[in-house]
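With this grant's support, we have settled on a layout for protein records. A representative record follows, to show the layout.
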Amino acid sequence: MNRNGSKKGRKKVIRVWTYDQAKKAVPYIASVVRSLREHRIDAMNENREAKQLAGKPGRPDRAALIEQSELARRAREADNRFDGAMAELNALDVFCIDPVRGEAVVPFVHGEQLAWYLFDLFDEEDHLRHWRYHEDPLETRRPIAEVLSAPETPAA
């Protein structure tokens, strides 16, 4: 920490991908993102059920307390599986944006700027149909053809 009490910012170097590398990795990325989605939905369902049970009027009986505890345990396990899958994806420098929607980003360089291939688990035609610059708003979707028609910047 510095004198002002704030942590000094560190820059993280991330691997950038070529389009061909990203396309070859799509089956693996899809598998991990699918797992992330399943684990997140499992945890959400277990937590929802636990809250519903806890919200019932009256004092819970022994069976209800045991069920509540079991639901909480299963939610924690799903969260742990989610964290493991997230670490697996992040080790590739691929980042999940929305696990439930099956969205992730893969970094690349375009025009000497950081950009992201937008991976969409549910786009059956092409999981890497869009891209955006790092500075673009998250909802920006540029057609991948713009990147493919430009000379590719080699990955570092």
Summary: The helical segments are 19-54, 62-90, 145-149. Residues 19-149 form one domain. DSSP finds three helices and five strands in the chain. The first strand starts at residue 95 and ends at 98.
